[in-house]
Amino acid sequence: MYSALQLDGLSLPNTKRVKNKNKFLALPGYTCERKSATYGQCKESCPYGRDPAWQCETAAPTLAPTVSPTPGPTAAPTRCLGTNSGNCLSGANTGVACCDAGASCERRDENYGQCKTACPYGNDPAWECETVAPSPATTELCYAESDGNCRAGGQVNKCCDESLTCWEKATYYGECNEAWACYTSPPTTSPTSLPTVAPQPKMTLRDAASNLTTPLPMGCVMNAAFIDDPAKVNDHTEADLELYLALAAKQYNWLTEENGCKWRYSWQQDRSRCIWSLEFAEAHGMDFRGHALIWGKAASNPDFFDEECVEDADGNMPGRCKSAVPTYTVDQKYKIMNEHVKNESEYYAGRLAAWDVVNEAVCDCWLSFSSCEAFVAARPDKCGKSERYSGDEYDVYLKKNIFWPAMPDYISQAFIETKKYDTTASLGYNEYKFEASTGWQKQKSDMTYQLVKSLVNEGVLIDYVGSQTHIDLGYMNYKTGGGSTSNRHDSELEYLDSVKANMDRYAAIGVEWHFTELTIAMESVDDTFDTEAEENQAYLYKGLLDLCLAEEKCTCFQTWGFVDGWTNAYNGLLAYPFGTDYEGKEAFVEMMSSLDPVYQKVYGCSAYLYGECNTDSDCCTEGNSCFVKNQFYSQCRTSCPDNTDWDC
Questions:
Q1: How would DSSP label each residue in 570-592?
Q2: What is the largest CA-CA distance in the chain?
Q3: What would the DSSP string read from start to end of 233-245?
Q4: What's the N-to-C CA distance of the chain in angstroms?
Q5: pTM attached to this predicted model
Q6: Would you call 428 helix, strand, or coil by DSSP?
Q7: Exposed e or buried b for every residue in 215-252, given b needs 16+ CB within 10 A?
Q8: Per residue in 214-245, pLDDT tens?
């Protein structure tokens, strides 16, 4: 740096003084023109005729300086963004930004791109992956002599042609020249990168997760049945529906149709619900999960393969059934299943990111009995031991349904058939209440792991295990039995630690982990969703997301729904990151802070209703103020919570 006098916004670098004399030395033909008692410039004549502050009094003789100015380096700077650093298509960078050697600027859209060695977004159709900047690095041409301001913006951010230097005239002005008359600013050094700009936080789950070094798909589930008639759930209006769909497209890049892709709706080529959701996903750059190909639950299958579509003693059938199910031989069952798998996987081939190939096959005998053996002894019609999938570590008990036990290998067969017709989609097994490896979930957790491990050992191509993870706030006390009606509650691990231990053993056998149907609900509709409940919900959402971010094999984070009040299954239990006002709850804020540290810093003062704020309240949205709970926490709220814990 150099020292300078600061007057009226102008910088005067040190000029050479004659020892013990208050005089300046000037080039021949120049004089020192005075502006004030402490400031002047060497000029042939006074250049400030329009500035009355200049006295234009000759103040020094025209002696040549003893030392000539030294021009700075003349090499043009390399204006490149580092690989994986920033937007190489933003604003002023367009057309001039370049990438480091071996990298190219890959386009997402007209306003955004990244320097990458290869396009990493093969599963995101929103990325065009068109190379828009060369590799290796290029250089930017500089201003010609006396052409333009090389100090624009107060930065030495431009360069000069060979033999020229950017001489500073004022804080915001300089010119490329050989030399000024009698003073210079220091020579410009060629910058190696663009000026540092403070990082801006991502504002959506989708953008924040996509910006990670290894992008994480953030998913949600919708029910296409509500699209034609949004009033089916809580009397929603068309305006509500518009907000709902816009929020899904903005916040998520992975989508699953709740029911419409299941066999009951897809047979006889009636795929309208599934197709509507798929086309919505494709239109908004979202990946799509098929759910689910094979499910033993009778009501999910068409009448002709629904084992509950039989007449009772009075000649009546369940209301959903239009015709009675025939009696099939085992060979006929294999043929029907294989044909269904072929029809669906072939029809959607190349358009799906994933298929839940088999859904919920493992027995629930652990809930109310001491063991599966005891359960089977009491209810032999419900479950049985699978000799095919049991192993040295654990026995596997499967649910009895139209597939099993008549088709002992139906799970393996479903995966094999699906892979024949769709070679690009990830294939997975989807299950519930097994995600914790200890406590009351342990027995089902071990059986599910043994099933998946058996498939791997058999050579069946299974890519992921899908954890539904339908939990409630009682799981805050999982170690002592919260969140279940099971009579066996003891656990050596807290809930999140137990889930991590389970994820680790799947990673060890090379199987990915997907959170497929996550919900974190109140335990009862009669409970009050107060500050403590919201904080606990946020803690569990963030905790599970943090586990996924820390595990390389966790490759999807999806909730079963996303807005309170839009699903029948959890109606009134406020199970989602977004509230009925379509604003992010504390769970959303905490999840965003895990995905983007910059968001945590900036949106501790949050544009959303909840989240830590500054006591000046400037950061709160209109109608809210910053209320202080204690020295460590505060929130933007409409009023102080009715809670003695709050200082306010």
A1: TTTS--SSB-TTS-B-HHHHHHH
A2: 123
A3: TTT--HHHHHHHH
A4: 48
A5: 0.66
A6: strand
A7: bbbbbbbbbbbbbeebeebeebeeebbeebeebbbebb
A8: 999 999 999 998 888 999 989 999 999 999 99
